[in-house]
Design a protein that fits this description.
The chain has about 290 residues and is of the alpha+beta class. About 40% of the residues lie in helices and about 25% in strands. Helix 1 crosses helix 2, helix 2 crosses helix 3 and helix 4 crosses helix 6. The protein is globular and about 60 Å long. This is AraC family transcriptional regulator. InterPro entries: AraC_E-bd, GyrI-like, Homeodomain-like_sf, HTH_AraC, MarA-like, Reg_factor_effector_dom_sf, Tscrpt_reg_AraC-type_HTH.
C-alpha cells in the first residue's frame, strides 16, 4: 500500500508537469505538491523514473518544441516561448545539446528523431520499482533504410491462434550465434516482417542477425525508412510481450499516432542475456501521425 501511495503521488506531480510545460516549474513547488521535502521528492522521483526532475522537464519541453517545428510554421522565438523558454538563445543552446543540431536544421530535416513522450505508469510491470522501471517513457524516432544479413524463420506471434515465437525465435538465434563467435563488437537485431503473406496467413517472418556483419550462408533483408515508437524493455525476454501489449492497449490509443504494418525491430544491447533481470533491449514499432 505504501508503495502504491508513493507512485500515486508521483503520478500527480507528472500530471502537473505535463499540463504546465509552458509555465515556470520549480522543484520546490513540485515537492510541495508531492507532500515530500525537496530532497525526498528528488530522490523518490529519480528512483521511480530513472531521471532527474530537471532533465525530465527539459526533455519534454524540447520534444514539444521539436514537434512544433515540424508541424507548424511558427517563428523559432514563438516556439521557444510556447515551450517554457524565456529567450531564443537559451532555447537554441538547449535544443542543440539534446538533438545535436539547431532548431532550424531540425525543421529543415523534417524528421522526428529523439522525441521523448510523457512517462506512463505501467500497472502490469512486475519488475522491482527499485530498478527505476515503474514508469515507461516511449521515444519517437525515424530510422534510416536498413540492410541486414541474417537468417530467418516463420513464426506465430502472441496474437495468433497458436503462438510459437517463444520456441522458434531462440532456436533461430542459436543458429546465428554459432556463426558469430569471431565477432568482437556485436550489434544484435531482430526484424519482424508483419506484412500479410498468403502462403503463411497466420505467420510473420522473423530475421536474426548482426548489424554491419555479413556471415557465410546468410541472406539479405532490406528495411525501408520508417518512423517508430521505441519501447524500452527491461528484464528477461518474456517482458517483451508485456511491454508491447501495454503499448498497444494503453499508450497508443491515447497518443497522436497510429500503428502501421511494416517491419518491427528488436534492438538488443551487445551482451544481452535473454533470461537476466538486468537485461535491456528496445522494441521498435512502426507508426505514423494521426
Amino acid at each position: 500500500m505504501a508503495q502504491q501511495n508513493r507512485l500515486t503521488r508521483i503520478e500527480k506531480v507528472l500530471d502537473y508537469i505535463h499540463d504546465n510545460l509552458d509555465e515556470p516549474i520549480h522543484v520546490a513547488n513540485l515537492a510541495e505538491k508531492s507532500c515530500w521535502s525537496r530532497w525526498q521528492f528528488q530522490r523518490v522521483f529519480g528512483e521511480a523514473t530513472g531521471l532527474t526532475v530537471a532533465q525530465y522537464i527539459r526533455e519534454l519541453r524540447l520534444s514539444k518544441a521539436a514537434e512544433l517545428l515540424l508541424s507548424s510554421t511558427g517563428r523559432q522565438m514563438d516556439v521557444a516561448m510556447q515551450c517554457g523558454f524565456d529567450s531564443e538563445i537559451s532555447f537554441s543552446r538547449a535544443f542543440k545539446q539534446m538533438f545535436g543540431c539547431t532548431p532550424r536544421a531540425y525543421r529543415q530535416r523534417g524528421k522526428r528523431q529523439g522525441l521523448r513522450t510523457p512517462l506512463h505508469y505501467r500497472t502490469d510491470n512486475g519488475l522491482s520499482v527499485n530498478q527505476s522501471k515503474a514508469f515507461t517513457q516511449v521515444r519517437i524516432e525515424n530510422h534510416e533504410p536498413l540492410c541486414l544479413y541474417g537468417m530467418h524463420d516463420w513464426i506465430r506471434g502472441p496474437f495468433s491462434s497458436a503462438p510459437n515465437f517463444l520456441e522458434r525465435v531462440p532456436k533461430l538465434w542459436s543458429k546465428v550465434e554459432k556463426h558469430a563467435a569471431a565477432i568482437k563488437s556485436k550489434k544484435p537485431i531482430g526484424i519482424i516482417d508483419t506484412h500479410y503473406n498468403a502462403q503463411h496467413p497466420e505467420q510473420m517472418q522473423y530475421w536474426a542477425g548482426y548489424l554491419d556483419e555479413q556471415l557465410e550462408g546468410q541472406e539479405q533483408i532490406l528495411v525501408p525508412a520508417q518512423e517508430y515508437a521505441v519501447i524500452p524493455v527491461y528484464g528477461p525476454v518474456t517482458e517483451v510481450e508485456k511491454a508491447v501489449g501495454w503499448f498497444l492497449h494503453h499508450w497508443l490509443p491515447d497518443s497522436h499516432y497510429y500503428s502501421v504494418s511494416g517491419y518491427e525491430l528488436e534492438r538488443y544491447s551487445p551482451n544481452y542475456e535473454p533470461n537476466s533481470v538486468h537485461s535491456y533491449m528496445e522494441y521498435w514499432l512502426p507508426i505514423q501521425p494521426r
